[in-house]
Amino acid sequence: METNTEKQEYTITVYTENQVGLLNRIAIIFSRRKINVESLNTSPSEIAGIHRFTIVVMESQDIVLKVVRQIEKQVEVLKAYYNTNDEIVWQELALYKVLSEEITEKVKVERLLREYGARAVAIRKDFIVFETTGHREETNKLMKALEPFGLVEFVRSARVAIIKESSGFHEKLKDFEKREPSEDVIENEYLGKREAVFTM
Amino acid sequence: METKKFTGAQAVLEACIAEGAETIFGYPGGAIMPIYDALYDYKDKLKHILVRHEQGGIHAGQGYARTSGKVGVVFATSGPGATNLVTGLADAMIDSTPLVCITGQVFAHLLGTDAFQETDIINITMPITKWNYQVTDATEIPGILAKAFYLARSGRPGPVLIDITKNAQIQSFDYEGYTPCNHIRSYRPKPVIRKNYIDEAAALINSAKKPLVIFGQGVILGKAEKEFKKFIEKSGMPAAWTILGLSALPTDHPQNVGMLGMHGNYGPNVLTNECDVLIAVGMRFDDRVTGRLDKYAKQAKIIHLDIDPSEIDKNVKATVGVWGDCKETLPLLTLGIQQKDRSEWLKVFADYTEQEYNQCIKDEIYPSAEEMTMGEVIRIVNETTKGNAVMVTDVGQHQMVTCRYAKFNETRSNVTSGGLGTMGFGLPAAIGAKFGTPDKTVIAVIGDGGIQMNIQEFGTIMQTGVDVKIMILNNQFLGMVRQWQELFNEKRYSFVDIQSPDYVMVAKAYDIAGAKVEHRKDLVNAIETMLAHKGSYMLEVMVGKENNVFPMVPQGCSVSEIRLK
Asked: What gap in Å lies between CA B236 and CA B340, rounded to an integer?
């Protein structure tokens, strides 16, 4: 096993039961090692009743692998995966609030909408709220463009990500519910290529 | 099916009975009163041991679990009762001890209001429990307790805490009986064993010229002592233990080459860095075992057997990771390995043992100086018990000396706080250990520091009449810290000269017989008197003030840099 200590962005996807306090149990695994969570999203998954966490961290593969194993060890966690950016499709959503008088006088709203693929989600006499979705660099661009015109509020959501190679969790869940699972769902699923134990 | 009306409190006790948890260590209080009220009617079915402090209760639960192999059960109330469990939970978590702790909690409608004796024990204990859960509705209790016992004992065992609000304890509901849990879909206690990794591991062992087996508590927790013995005997490999693995293999076994780590034996430490294949069984490469990691067994191929996948590659990268229950993996591995005679390799260990004996052990167990040593005390205990007693230790020099020199014939007879190093563990753990194995002699070896941390448990001994032999090895110092200050802080003895009360009088106040030995001529007789005494006995032995435990791998050093003096 090659030692990989170079830091890069990893997206961790965790399938869990819906249980109060689990967010904290997972968060503790990061904070205990003093790892800053760049972004964290919880949402429903493709299966009713199963939650999906999407966590982004800047870490080395060595550390991510250990952290992911600790996450999987939690009783209510079904499965955890980690992926580099080229293995996933992801989006973040950003909202921008600007004063209407600034934006209508100094910048053509239409040009903004076209150039940045933004949508106006609220248009009022006093302010306008734009929305863009995309990668961080993309949502940042519009922020920079609006800064000179008095960006009143800015907020960006956590990353949500789809794993390119994943075939979803439906079949896996059926296996989990069996007492004698097939080899595909057990912890040492990818023991043959241990570096990839937690990737699909 | 006919249903009965039960309260939540009754359901808790029914669960304890159904799980065979007939001994409970606990302490009542406001928020757990309904459970204690119900307990009044269950006195003939459940034995409740009233401790003197919740920390004592949980350590007793640990001692009970460690000697009996069952799940220890502990009751405590909300707020301070619950927070007093924290040290024991952390200890049980790091040492994989199966516990179910039930805490009372304020009424559900008061949660989050800073009510009297309210504390958020679920969040406090999250990192130090295998699982925890707050019950606010009595109908959940049978299912949740079934899950709690299952989780505590299965896979890699650990402590579970169930916090039950007072309203749920009082609430009546239709009780449909107790169904034990044996499956949770998101929980895989046992990895499925992959044959190819067994084969790879067997091939490595077969090709090895100098294999070394190192084993931990996994062998005991997996109830795989016989399987382990067959495994090492078939290929004649030397086997060394971590302090939690101690007693899994009899001390006198010819292939038992001793203790690993900071105060372990000379041979196994030095030869860890000379073996060609290192086979780790149910151990987790703690830093006290490995010393400096980047100089640890770098020359060796490493096989790591563990039930917990997160342990493989955590500290030491394994060449072959065999994930699974060692009760199952060891016999498979034994099938694949060849019968070998490795007496030459064992002879290397014997040579190191001889050097260690001459330079270090001899003077510890047969001291030439006037002062008594901890080692000679343990030697005399061995001569009297013949290795058949359960030895419970606290934390510090006496712990290292006892683990190094005590003889063990049977498994589950060494109880100590390993990973957490909890002073104050010894006395309450010994009480629990005796309840867990009533037919054996239980000897608690404790320092003059540790005894004062949970000395109130003398009261538990007095009231229950439990038969525990307590040996206080008094060097009038917090000895281990003093040793480090001597060796690494230029003898700047900062706050380690601890005073003791008159222990014989303290014991007497609690109706425990006792004696103090200050001279060697009285020692053998005193130990024999203690062991022959019916009922509990406290023996204080005044040992040399500034004796050090050697060998020692100084912190930050490699295991090959072990010092004999």
From this structure: 6
Q: Share the mean pLDDT of chain B.
A: 97
* DSSP line for B308-327: -GGGTTTSS--SEEEES-HH
User: Regarding the domain delimited by B195-347, which CATH topology (the fold level of the hierarchy) does it fall under?
Assistant: Rossmann fold (3.40.50)
Looking at B116, B176, B383, B555, which residue is catalytic?
Answer: B116
Task: Decide if B117 is catalytic.
Answer: yes
As assigned by CATH, the class of the B372-542 domain is alpha beta
As given in the structure block, the two tokens for residue B106 are: 């304020």
Residue range B438-494, pLDDT digits in tens: 999 999 999 999 999 999 999 999 999 999 999 999 999 999 999 999 999 999 999
Q: Choose the CATH number for A90-156 among 3.30.70.1150, 3.40.640.10, 2.40.30.10, 3.80.30.20.
A: 3.30.70.1150
Predicted complex ipTM: 0.91
pTM exceeding 0.90 = yes
Sheet containing A77-84, strands listed edge to edge, beginning at the edge strand earlier in sequence:
A37-44, A50-60, A7-17, A77-84
Amino acid residing at B367: P
Catalytic residue flag (residue B480): yes
Can B400 be counted among the known catalytic residues?
no
Which CATH topology does B4-175 take? Rossmann fold (3.40.50)
Query: A7-88+162-196: what CATH class?
Result: alpha beta
Taking an 8 Å cut-off on Cβ atoms, the answer to whether B123 and A21 are in contact is yes
User: Cβ contacts (< 8 Å) between B96 and chain A: which residues?
Assistant: none
For residue range A25-51, what is the model confidence (pLDDT) as tens digits? 999 999 999 999 999 999 999 888 899
Q: How far apart are CA B133 and CA B120, in angstroms?
A: 11
* CATH 3.30.70.260 placement within chain A: 7-88+162-196
Cα–Cα distance, B240 to B249 (Å, whole number)? 9
Q: How far apart are CA B8 and CA B164, in angstroms?
A: 9
Q: Where do the CATH 3.40.50.970 domains begin and end in chain B?
A: 4-175, 372-542
Q: Of B33, B117, B223, B546, which is the active-site residue?
A: B117
Enumerate the CATH 3.40.50.1220 domain ranges in chain B, comma separated.
195-347
pLDDT digits (tens, 9 = 90+) for A126-185: 999 999 999 999 999 999 988 888 899 999 999 999 999 888 887 777 777 775 555 544
Residues of A in contact with B196 (CB under 8 A): 192
Collect all residues of chain A within an 8 Å Cβ-Cβ radius of residue B191: 186-188
Mutating which of A73, A79, A178 best tests the B interface, going by the most B Cβ atoms within 10 A?
A: A73
> CB contacts < 8 Å between A and B, how many?
69
